[in-house]
Amino acid sequence: MKKITIAIDGFSSTGKSTLAKQLAKELEYVYVDTGAMYRAVAYFAMQHNLIGADFFKKEALIEALADIKLEFRFNAELGFAEMYLNGENVEKQIRTIEVSNFVSKVAAVSEVRAKLVEQQQEMGTNKAIVMDGRDIGTVVFPNAELKIFMTASAETRAQRRFDELQQKGDNVSYEEVLKNVVDRDYMDTHREDSPLVIADDAIEIDNSYLNKEEQFAAVLELVNDVVKTI
């Protein structure tokens, strides 16, 4: 079977990472969670007091980019790669609501995007990769053979995220999560550098009423259709 590049973009909490992991496992492709990379940079900024509720030391973060080393290390027990920041496993830390509140601001910084996009493009040199994020089909891999754009109502996404955080033991309210989802949507779609938009040749999937199995089956069929035509 010919190897292709699969780009999955979309709004926050649409299940992009879940779908990407399923596809990578089924196809034996490399999976890259670009959101985790931006979250790790946001976490670094929080650790070093470069961002907070009422401040953002953008220039200081830009100067510190050379000190940020990101890498994915495969966890055989979990079956997927985890994010490491400067040698430390930060997979759990970067999934908190606190990081979610800052990640869109950090991702809007052009210098941050340039650094991470360069790394992401290097990862996809040999194809056979599934990558999810906000600008994969428009900026990182504009020539990807298959582009998926995922969406769902803000309320549906907030409920999914709220349930996920509750299962992890995080003490958050649904209203707080919904506000985070709405705020991130606005920031992601209105930033000057690489805003979240659907690529002209992307296939849009609204999964408000789809379960994970139905969604996976539909996208896997799209993959097979694309592979047959190249």
From TrEMBL:
Q: Which Gene3D superfamilies match?
A: P-loop containing nucleotide triphosphate hydrolases
Q: List the InterPro entries hit by this protein, alphabetically.
A: Cytidylate_kin, Cytidylate_kinase_dom, P-loop_NTPase
What the entry lists under CDD domains is as follows: CMPK (cd02020)
Q: Which domain of life is it from?
A: Bacteria
Q: Which Pfam families match?
A: Cytidylate_kin
Q: Which UniProt keywords apply?
A: ATP-binding, Cytoplasm, Kinase, Nucleotide-binding, Transferase
* Gene Ontology molecular function: any one: kinase activity
* Swiss-Prot/TrEMBL catalytic activity: dCMP + ATP = dCDP + ADP; CMP + ATP = CDP + ADP
EC number from the UniProt entry? 2.7.4.25
The keyword Cytoplasm is annotated on this UniProt entry: yes
Which PANTHER family does the annotation name? CYTIDYLATE KINASE, CYTIDYLATE KINASE/PANTOATE-BETA-ALANINE LIGASE
Name the family.
Answer: Belongs to the cytidylate kinase family. Type 1 subfamily.
Known HAMAP family for this protein? Cytidyl_kinase_type1
UniProt name for this protein: Cytidylate kinase
Task: Record the organism.
Answer: Flavobacterium tagetis
Q: What gene name is given for the protein in this entry?
A: cmk
